[in-house]
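Reviewer 2 asked us to include a model.

Predict the structure of this chain.
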Amino acid sequence: MTSIEGLLCEVTPLLESQMALKCAEELFFGESLLLCDHSNEAPSTSGRHSRHSESHRHSESHRHSESHHSKDHKKGKKDKGHHSKDDLGRNKQDGLQNAIASAKETVRKALAEGSSLSSAANVSQNVLDELVKMKEENALIRKELNELRTLFENLETGLLWTCSDAGFRCLGRRLLILGDGNLSFSVALACARPEAEITATVFEDEPSFELRYPSAAEMLIRLRSLFPRVKVLFGIDARNLPLRWMGRFDDIIWNFPHPGGKTNIRKSRELMRAVFESVSRIIRDGKFLVTLVRGQSGLDHEAIVKRRFLKRGRLPAHRLDSWQIAYLAAEWNFSIENVRQFDPRLFPLYSVSGYRNRDQVFHNSFEAELITFVLSPSLNTLKAVKLHEEEQYAVKEVECFHELRPYFKHDLSILYEETTALGHWESVFLNLVREACGSLVVAIEEVEHLRSFAPNGLPNRIYRLTWQAWRKPLSKALCNMLQEELRSLITSAVLQRKLKISDVCSSTKPNIETKTEKPSAGGEAADEDFDLFGSSDEEIDEEKERIKEERLKAYAAKKALKPAGVAKSSVILDIKPWDDETSMEEMEKFVRGIEKEGLVWGGGKLIPLAYGIKKLQIICVIEDDKVSVDDLIDHITEDGADYVQSVDIVAFNKI
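Predicted model (structure tokens):
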């Protein structure tokens, strides 16, 4: 049912125009009569109104007679049911008639107020003037709101810069920005740091840049308008920065590096390794800031958010399937000074582009990690690294690890010659390690399941050393060097102090006295009567003495021709591929193709891991004096980077 309010909403907007109301009058009334319970007592005396009143009276009389006839005809029926039906129909009709009557009254009042075309025109003009005035006021309000929004954004950005914990706030004055895709970061930084001298670089040449980033034209214009404070250079490869830039910049920034094409961990690592080498040649006391998407660095993101970088009793959560940024940086003496979350609100104009090598924004910046690197001194000896560490960290808690520093594990095999005092000599060995390494060796544990006995019956123990330096990061090559130096120091200490232990994996073996063996039975038949251990009371026979000397010399010469005992070890390796697309046949072929003197490859098998990925478990036998397991693993991982993600030692047993 149509309500009065609904019709009023339809009619009321028409009250401003007299002509429209007159048309509505004709449409509503015309020459036909309307049935209505209520007459409109408008002041009009037109013929049309008289006809309407007469029609109303006739309708009322006719309806009354019909109602009386209906009552007589339906006598005997219940009054309640009859009245309910009749009242329902009348209520529906009365509601519509009341709505029409109310609309008629509203229209007639409007017609009475505006009786001339001129007044209607004036009303329309006033309305138009009012609309124009409201539009102008609205435009002013919008302008003020935009200004207020800009002021608020500037205030918010200023507060964020003030409250931010270092990072971009503590940058130097001369800044180099590497690989700034669409140049939006350079524009944002130039606005945030008006005092800074910025050199923005792009990998592509200018024509290629314009084709790849068509939306960056405005950014380029803005940067060139800030010349000479801001310079834009095209065709700059971050992997090969000019040596003439040495010492020219205070800090270097690189946001969201990418090797191009489909995401590939190996290519990403190669890119970062080359860039660290390049940056190390031109930076001295400054900082190198790199922003990576969450998970790329390999660091524990939860520790970064909570600012908890020290872990007691557990190793750092460095992910293997990542760029392993801390380990790559350590190869070129870069140390992670700090890691914090990258806040894109500091740079409102910055849009991270380059998604799939196109002018397309990706939205991973809100959980990104801003990593600050500083250059550390180049040290190559165990003593130098130990002294450098103890200058700042003289005492470190045992088994306390730093999340932002690389760590490495190395095994050391020790033979104990005095089995009755094994506990004592084990304590002596551990003291030797602490004396030589200080706090560089954070943890030492025995690998109990690798316990064994040497061929001479001496107990063999394998100790796993965990290396980590907090002040100067250790690279894999440096840690291997320190491990070999530690072995040499242990060997020297054993010889000098005449200790009842030996490092069976060291290149220098301690001298062990052996009993003199009797000559072999090769020439005994002719001289069975010769008593080598004759009594001292017997007269010395010069001829027998001469024969004895000759035979001893012959025995010594024969023994010298026999091959000396060679210390060997059986090693089982787990070699893991990058993904399920890696050819395991090619990977095994590559591994077996590694040839070294003293290395023999044995059987191998493929073991399922998960999601269709398998690992290669292979056994090899090495001569301890000729082959280092650490060097072998490095050879596999570095030369086989296309296939191999990581290599683990499953078992290490002496033969």
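Residues 31-85, 506-540 have pLDDT under 50 and may be disordered. The first strand starts at residue 174 and ends at 178. We have added this to the supplementary material.
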